[in-house]
Specification:
Shape: elongated
Strand order of the largest sheet: 1-2
Helix content: over 70%
Order of helices and strands: HHHHHHHEEHHH
Distance between the termini: 21 Å
Structural class: mainly alpha
Low-confidence stretches: 10-28
Oligomer: single chain
Largest sheet: 2 strands, antiparallel
Length: 245
């Protein structure tokens, strides 16, 4: 799965690089016919692809929603560094693989695999690779966000709607905006029960005259206990996965 995702990111980032016809050794070896300029451009393009591949993962997948929800959960519980950023990012990453598996498999079978077997050219394969991601983003993007970027483009005299398809320069930022919004919506719902616990503990400590005792020092164990007793991780992960169309 990881290999598939990396290859898909490479093809989506720079369609013009002929990765299907050239091996890594061919891409990095200096040509003997003196065409050093083409080798430099090819090598620079390959390095650029590798540098932007993580960004592509964030832009066109479900990763942002997961990571935002987990970060808000940790803040709501009052835990500064537990679970660590690496643990949260890893969990969000593998949940992304789970949610995106149908999309990745379709892009692999319809575009990447035929391209690697030389049954399609780069020009033919790139739309087939990108189409599953378009469908995923369209299904999980609000019409309001798409309209925002379409209207801005039209104000500048740009036509970003070709037939019944919207260009990726509009679809991708609209999708990211929708994902960030949904991440904060889910985070708000996560914070509510922890906020109630904090208010109850603060009220009790104030009534008992314990002014110098931080309420968070008492509420933290109760919030952790509450989250464990309701099997919070199972509920949260299941709700996040089911929130995608």
């Amino acid at each position: 799965m990881i290999r598939k995702l990396l290859l898909l990111a490479l093809f989506l980032a720079l369609p013009g690089v002929a990765l299907a016809q050239q091996s890594p050794a061919q891409l990095l070896n200096v040509p003997v016919d003196g065409s050093a300029a083409s080798w430099i451009i090819r090598t620079f393009g390959l390095l650029t692809i590798l540098s932007v591949a993580p960004g592509i993962l964030v832009m066109v997948t479900s990763f942002p929603r997961f990571l935002i929800a987990f970060s808000i959960l940790r803040s709501g519980m009052g835990l500064a560094s537990t679970p660590s950023n690496m643990v949260l990012a890893s969990l969000a990453l593998f949940m992304t693989f789970y949610v995106m598996s149908p999309t990745l498999d379709r892009a692999w079978k319809e575009g990447v695999q035929p391209l690697m077997e030389n049954r399609l050219t780069e020009e033919q394969a790139v739309p087939l690779i990108a189409e599953p991601f378009r469908g995923f983003m369209m299904a999980n993007t609000r019409d309001k966000d798409i309209t925002l970027f379409v209207d801005i483009a039209r104000e500048k005299g740009q036509d970003v709607v070709l037939g019944d398809k919207i260009e990726y320069r509009v679809l991708i930022p609209a999708f990211m905006l929708s994902e960030i919004r949904r991440g904060f919506e889910i985070g708000f719902l996560i914070l509510l029960p922890f906020l109630v616990i904090d208010m109850v503990v603060a009220t009790i400590t104030m009534a008992m005259g314990m002014m110098m005792l931080p309420p968070t020092a008492i509420s933290l164990p109760f919030k952790i206990l509450f989250f464990v007793l309701i099997d919070g991780w199972n509920l949260l992960v299941g709700s996040l996965v089911r929130s995608f169309v």
